[in-house]
Specification:
419 residues, alpha+beta, 17 helices, MacB_PCD, transmembrane, ABC3_permease_C
């Protein structure tokens, strides 16, 4: 063991005076541990929150969609599907239909009406996320009869006072070339003459936490049943999942270029730009929190070393009188900073990992889902965050430890011995 490191360990962790410098060191270690834990948990929660919301949005609309201009319904062609599947980075292609409707239910003598988006896709390919979000009833199945079975969001079910087994009236227009309820030139007379009424049965109620635009608006049905009741054999477009999200924009452009006019494509990030901007705003605040916590940890190191210098002034004078040079003396206090930072960082990593695993398993902290879109604190354990925080805290601690180290090196032996 190098003499500087040995003396640094003795100075920091061996009590030799009534003022208890060891206690001061433990306070410093605790401060760094708490700061490191807070930094890691901040990154883990912000990343976990973004990933959870992104998973929910992708489950509703995939990574990207391909449609025709003006949202027109069209007949799918095997040739189009083959051309899309040959695009590099495309993982899966699923046809879907979206149709604006009005849902009507009855509560006693009172009639309840609510607008909704009726979305159909192959029931056999219902995302696991949506199946797991069903809080009442069961998922839809592929329709083999004349029934129109639907899944409704919890907020919409509450507004219409419906649940599994309830029958609702689906009001739409059957002659529209798009999934819209009204064309720009339609009059009330046109709307009434094209009115299409269908009865649907609620099979289940889902709750994703995405209240506005999803749980209060989106109604899920089997694509085959939807085509049978409204627009035989036609679809609104293709939903595409990709292998590499980093190349999503490139793949989106390739899909539009491959099919040509009147097709166009867009990503889930473009469709829900407001939500993703909100997530980005939260991520932009994170560096400010990290800087604040890091500064506190660094000043904790500086103040601790300065206190140790005051406590060990006589010992410093004795070492200098015995021939220890200023550079060696600086190394002692830099070694002290390294030891304190190392122990604090190790404890901080263990605390952060322990809390993360505990919360992921037991979900002790609950959140209001209507405000945060999730029920429990989302934590993403990414060991790159642990390494990054550890490296930053250790580097800054050593960097700013030069200040008290230079103070110690500048002491005069005679003055120090007489203190």
């Amino acid at each position: 063991m190098k003499p500087e490191l040995y003396i640094a360990r003795r100075f920091a962790f061996k009590q030799r005076s009534t003022s208890k410098p060891t206690f001061i060191v433990m306070i410093a270690v605790t401060g760094i541990a708490v700061g490191t834990t807070a930094l890691i948990l901040t990154l883990s929660i912000v990343k976990g929150f973004s990933v959870k919301i992104e998973e929910k949005l992708v489950a509703f609309s995939s990574h990207m969609q391909v449609r025709q201009s003006d949202g027109r319904l069209f007949y799918p062609l095997d040739a189009d599907t083959r051309r899309l599947s040959h695009i590099d980075n495309v993982l899966s292609i699923t046809p879907f239909m979206e149709k604006n409707v009005i849902l009507q239910s009855r509560k006693g003598k009172k009639t309840l009406i609510q607008p909704a988006m009726l979305k159909g896709f192959n029931a056999a390919e219902t995302p696991d996320f949506l199946r797991e979000s069903i809080v009442d009833g069961e998922s839809i199945a592929e329709s083999g009869g004349n029934n129109l079975d639907i899944l409704v969001g919890s907020s919409l079910a509450e507004t219409l006072d419906i649940g599994p087994g309830s029958r609702v009236l689906v009001i739409s227009t059957s002659k529209q070339a798009t999934g819209a309820l009204l064309a720009g030139s339609d009059t009330i007379v046109d709307l009434l003459s094209n009115m299409d009424l269908e009865l649907a049965t609620v099979r289940g109620v889902y709750e994703t936490g995405l209240n506005e635009g999803f749980d209060d608006y989106m109604v899920i049905a089997d694509l085959g049943a939807l085509q049978k009741h409204f627009h035989p054999s036609r679809i609104s477009g293709y939903e595409i999942m990709v292998n590499d999200l980093a190349r999503l924009n490139e793949t989106t452009r390739a899909a539009a270029d491959t099919l040509g006019y009147p097709f166009y494509s867009y990503t889930v990030y473009e469709r829900y730009a407001n939500l993703f901007e909100w997530l980005k705003l939260q991520q932009n605040i994170t560096p400010l929190l990290i800087i604040t916590i890091t500064i506190v940890a660094v000043f904790n190191i500086i103040s601790t070393l300065l206190v140790l210098i005051i406590e060990k002034t006589r010992e410093i004078g004795m070492l200098m009188a015995l021939g220890l040079g200023p550079s060696k003396l600086s190394s002692i206090f830099l070694s002290q900073a390294f030891l304190i930072a190392l122990i604090g960082i190790a404890l901080g990593n263990l605390l952060a990992l322990g809390f993360s695993v505990f919360e992921l398993h037991f979900h002790l902290i609950s959140l209001p889902e209507k405000n945060y879109f999730i029920k429990h604190v989302p934590i993403l354990i990414d060991f790159r965050d642990y390494l990054l925080v550890s490296a930053v805290v250790a580097s800054l601690s050593l960097l700013f430890a030069f200040i008290p180290a230079r103070v110690a090196a500048s002491l005069k032996p005679g003055t120090a011995l007489l203190t």
